[in-house]
Amino acid sequence: MFRLQFDLDRIIGTLEREGWVVIPNALSATITANLRTACLDMWRQGLFHEAATGRASGQACRAEIRADSVLWLDQVAALPAVQAYNAAMDDIMQAVNRGLYLGLVELESHFAVYPEGAFYKKHLDRFRDDDARTLTTVFYLNEGWPQQAGGQIRLYLDADCREFVDVGPEAGTLVLFLADRFWHEVLPARQQRLSVTGWYRRRRSSMPW
Fold first, then answer.
1. How many CA atoms are closer than 13 Å to the CA of 182, on its beta-carbon side?
2. Phi/psi class of residue 82: alpha, beta or left (left: φ > 0; alpha: ψ in -120 to 50)?
3. Considering only CA atoms, which of 95, 132, 127, 111 is closest in space to residue 48?
4. pTM score
5. Under 8 Å CB-to-CB from 107, ≥6 apart: which residues?
6. Under a CB-based contact definition with an 8 Å cutoff, are residues 95 and 12 in contact?
7. What DSSP line would sit under the chain, residue for residue?
8. Fold adopted by 8-53+63-202
9. Which residues contact 17 (CB under 8 A, 6 or more apart)?
10. Is residue 37 within 8 Å of 15, Cβ to Cβ?
């Protein structure tokens, strides 16, 4: 657990009560800096691809909905920075399973780069025909992010999407929330925005569709 810089019990308690939590300086500065370097290196090498919406045969790139580019971490799993990140996130998964009995079995995640002007319109993270995604994770890599640069994640706290909280994409901040409960969006970024976005998954149940 040495990779984590926060009280896991307190975080799990907040997740249980609220369904979401924001953790500043969640991982070590070294892990954060190494991830940022790896992300930018892969970006410069042209390894990212335009992000899509939907899944399986319904997957499509729709720039009017989201304008970021992604690189899945399993494609670069041998990088030391990625290994350190995955180990830290595994610590969180084990603790959440002990405290909340969510039955999480794996984490799927990707680097996400939002070029200047990019955004992601309001959405839920769980697919209609697949209930495996259970807990969303967003870890930010931007050092010294100015408030006027936008790019916040807007997390809607009620079913009518009238109440919300905005979280700036400052390096080291980790956001966790239940994937099937919270609508959210990424506000337009006025400069390049970097993150690692992922989903803790449980085993898929038999769906009625």
1. 25
2. alpha
3. 111
4. 0.92
5. 86, 89, 90, 93, 137, 198, 199, 200, 201
6. yes
7. -TTB-S-HHHHHHHHHHHSEEEETT-B-HHHHHHHHHHHHHHHHTT--EE--BS-GGG-B--TTTB--EEEEGGGGTTSHHHHHHHHHHHHHHHHHHHHH---EEEEEEEEEEE-TT--EEEE-SSBTTB--EEEEEEEE-BTT--GGGB--EEEE-STTS-SEEEE--BTT-EEEEETTT--EEEPPBSS-EEEEEEEEEEPPPPP--
8. Jelly Rolls (2.60.120)
9. none
10. no
Q: How far is CA 127 from CA 55, 173, 193, in A?
A: 8, 26, 25
Instruction: Name residue 76's amino acid.
Output: V
List, in sequence order, every residue forming a beta bridge with 22; answer none if it has no partner: 175
Other residues' Cβ atoms within 10 Å of the Cβ of residue 29:
12
pLDDT digits (tens, 9 = 90+) for 67-103: 899 999 999 999 999 999 999 999 999 999 999 999 9
Structure tokens at 33: 């800096």
Task: Give residue 2's Cα distance to chain centre.
Answer: 21
Question: For residue range 177-207, what is the model confidence (pLDDT) as tens digits?
Answer: 999 999 999 999 999 999 999 999 998 764 4
